[in-house]
Amino acid sequence: MSTETVKAAAHRVCETTGLSIFLKAQFFVKINAVLAVIFLLVGGIAALLLALTRWSNVMLLNDIWYYRMITLHGVNMLVFWIIFFEMAILYFASTTLLNTKMFSKKLAHVSLALMVAGAVVTNYIILKGQADVMLTSYPPLEAHPLFYLGIILFAVGALLVAFNFFATLYIAKKNKTYEGSMPLVTFGAATAAIIAVVALLHGAAALVPTFFWSMGWMEMMDPGVYRLLWWGLGHHSQQINVAAMVSVWYFVATMSTGAKPLNETVCRGAFILYILFINLAAAHHLLVDPGLSSEWKIWNTSYAMYLAVLASMIHGYTVPASMEVAMRRKGYNKGIFGWFAKLPWKDPGFSAVALSAIIFGFIGGITGVTLGTEQINIMAHNTLRIPGHFHATVVGGTTLAFMGLCYYLVPLIFQKDFYMKKLARIQPWLFGGGIVLMSFGMSFAGTYGVPRRTYDSDFGGAILETGFDPIAHIFLGLLGVGGVIAFVGLLLFLVLIVSAVFFGPSIKGQKMPTWQTDREQKMTDDLISKGYEEEGKDYHIKTPGTIALVLIFLLSFAIYYFANWAALADLWHIR
Amino acid sequence: MSIFHPKGNWYRPPTGTERLWVGLALAWCLVMSITMPWWHFQGKQNAPQTTYEVDPSAFIQRVNQFVETNRVGEMNNVPIVEPEPGGDAYLLGQMWQWYPVLKLKKDQTYRIHVSSADLQHGLSILPINMNIHVLPGYDYVMEITPTTAGEFSLICNEFCGIGHHRMTGKIIVEET
């Protein structure tokens, strides 16, 4: 090939996977990942302070700083950390996996500059104390115009990255850099990018007029309409996270166990369900809002939305099932769960992703669908049950999966090895365990009606006194303890990543060091490089272990779901 | 391999245990889909539907008139107001209290109009834990029947400024 020499300068070949890594794109993968981790630290410090304040025996902050820290925490975690990291995933999935250069380096620089400027401006104005409005900034609550402007700049930057991603897919297809269909991980990333465009357009519709209002150029938007539009951003963003997280599950499942999607049709079909049916799910933030009919609420949360739930339930099967098939192929055939015990638990990338799938499914998913039921929402709206749910999806699920991906990103993209590997092995357990405890604390305190986003659970100084059952305070203590443990896990993650990226031993020109025994790694490598002999053929899949796991899941789901209906029947009658 | 492009034509319907699971998951989704509309007709707890557009100042006037006509006492300087069973009652969310205190009778149905004078608020009735979102400009009508007697607290669970965690109120339910 005549272009071989030109191409040689623009990319390197990965020693571990044999894939091409394009150096310009690699820069943007790295810089977005590094920025993501910086904002994770900012959001994490705020998280620790919040946990130590909601822990009602500690109450660390004063009220002003508590509300300021919630705003800071929400914005940095749900927007800056997670979206910067997703940008890194988009650059990686569109170039390396499709064997193509990126569409435009200039555009990538522009979007990066916008996103950094937006993040800095927003954080500045929050810390200055002029935007104590929470992430949601519901009008008539008003922030300094820079708060809205910062988020808008960040969103425009992210939208440009999505455009760059789609343009890269287009040039890859045009230049025939790969045959047939794109890899599943890229397909999942494309799903995330499509939902991102929809989310960001909703965000623009909510926040641009609100920015104009804060400048005095426009009347205030109707608060009900704002909520509808804002949640088109707020909830769709969670679906970006889910699609990106599931893509990471597939990626790490392949890299750590040699798993291959059992059926591409099913996996891709499930991603398409996310795109088609998640748009309606924003409604479950509005289930006890005035101005909307029951028909609208029920339609938008059930008939259509449950197809997105179906999608997650499908991925929740296909990911472990693909691992089971891979493990059985390696000869771990003992009983129903022999393969499960032999999974590469010593690989923190793997254990993070496995815990992510379990926490996301068993805690986040089950609570989310149940609380998002129109009538059950009466017992959950704005209580601590809500953050109890979404910390299990977006932190125990997405953030933990992204942490798992970092254990692959550092050796494969930064070409550095880790120090303190024993600590790395416990990090996902520490972080995941802390989040589970915190989520339980929140959820159970919430069943007593303890509100979210509220400084003092004893309502000290109120004209009419009130308070909660002492047991609710025990759960608030659990929230605090879990939060502290998760923060230690987060700090350990940062120490591991920073020490490896900046000071770690270089592994340029070498394969990624394995977390498993050499024999196990060789079996995994063989599965990845040689594939499966049945490739392309139809074969019956036997996954007794996974089907047992998902049946346990379904049973837990049904018990939790109907227990909530039973509790609902005890309330006052309301219609 | 999820990181490589699939070879050949990859379209095929699910088989084996995968097909079983897709079927079970779909069936479960259908069960959940049917439960909600079923409860809408058969259940006693549904999100209120009736909403009127209202100017906050007009709503405040109605609240004041309601308090004047039906006042029966006072609790920490907040009027206690007893509406007619089956009749309309008013509850105002404002920075930072629920106004007035309502006195209701067990097993009687009331139409409680809730709205806000200023920011968004979250009406939370404790300890039974029932929660409704309150928006300025929207008169949200809860047709509510207390089925237990006693003193119930109202708190706000939507952030409404620095006094948010001091925003409370009361509903007193008497045995009939």
Account of the 3D structure:
The complex is a heterodimer of chains A (575) and B (176). Chain A is mostly helical and 575 residues long. Among the domains of chain A are: 120 residues; 149 residues. Chain A is 69% helix and 1% strand. A two-stranded antiparallel sheet of chain A has the order 1-2. In chain A, a hairpin with a 6-residue loop joins β1 and β2. Chain A is globular, with a radius of gyration of 23 Å. Chain A starts with a helix and ends with a strand. The N terminus of chain A is likely disordered. Chain B is an alpha+beta fold and 176 residues long. Chain B has one domain: Cupredoxins -  blue copper proteins (Immunoglobulin-like, Sandwich). Chain B contains two helices and twelve strands. In chain B, strands 2-3-6-12-11-8-9 form a seven-stranded mixed β-sheet. Chain B has a five-stranded mixed β-sheet with strand order 1-10-7-4-5, with helices on one face. In chain B, β2 and β3 form a beta hairpin. The N and C termini of chain B lie far apart (69 Å). In chain B, 48% of the residues are buried. The model of chain B has no long low-confidence stretch (mean pLDDT 95). Classes of the chains: A mainly alpha (575), B alpha+beta (176). β3 of chain A pairs antiparallel with β10 of chain B.
Summed up, what is this model?
The complex is a heterodimer of chains A (575) and B (176). By secondary structure, chain A is an all-alpha fold.
Provide keyphrases for this structure.
heterodimer, A: about 575 residues, mainly alpha, two-stranded antiparallel ribbon, 17 helices, about 70% helix, disordered N terminus, B: about 180 residues, alpha+beta, Immunoglobulin-like, 7-stranded mixed sheet, 5-stranded mixed sheet, 2 helices, 12 strands, about 25% helix
